[in-house]
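Researcher: Structure for this, please.
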Amino acid sequence: MIGIENDRILVTMDYKNHLQVLANRFTTFACSFDTREKNKKFAWGLALIHDKSGKDTYTSNSATFSFAKNIQISKKNKAVMAIQAGCVQKYIDVNKLTWNNQFDGTGFDMNLPSGENSDANYFIPDISAGSVWETEFGNGKEMRAGIAAHHLTNPVLKANNIASIAIGWNVSGMATLPIDNSLMSIQPSFLFSKQAMDEWLERWQGVPRQRGFNARYTPDRDASYLSAGVFLKTNNALIFAAGISFDEQMSFTFSYDIGTRQNLQGKSGGLEFSVNYSIR
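Model: Predicted structure, token format:
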């Protein structure tokens, strides 16, 4: 979340290829930038996301601005309050869809007129808000808990009279637990999301973090490390992830998910690749 990390400037780029089991898969490209002012009380950032579904049939683009206030509760406790506002553009190319009117008796002929309305191209304003609390226990032990709400304005999708987008809720938690007399730590975490009737739980189980050197033992240097772990998205996917960080400035993360739903078992999943660059 913006404002919770100690980075003065953080740039993130992300690519995700969803559901490779489908011929016309979904892809996501995202990039974000956030920074905080000198006294670290305020932070702001920008995020751009591009989603593409099928054979370029359905695309979504969003641009959002975030602002956060850092509240130092005590020496070892702090909280961040943030709000995000922006605009989402959605486009549906009906000419790339198949309609009943295009069935010629033996198959679908895309050259036949569909009889449908023209392409849908519309813009949706969107607002989200959230908060994170963080505490330190000493010896590198930390814990975070957060809550966020998305689509607070219940934006309406105008294409084909689709109903408003329901408010979505996220509840998350994470702990960093260094292993005594070693250069490793465990990071258990969870994420619970709910929107309308849909909900899922994602959990990072027992993540060992192997450090090449640790800032606790070399205070004049930032930590570099390797990381690996497993996410479990209930009734959906099993996700394997691995990453490497250089001097806590540049990091690369790769993940691959395998579908666990009955209709996806044993079939290929999707991959995701992220790059982070920070200046402290």
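Researcher: Any notable elements?
Model: The chain has no helices and 16 strands. Residues 155 and 164 are 5 Å apart (CA to CA).
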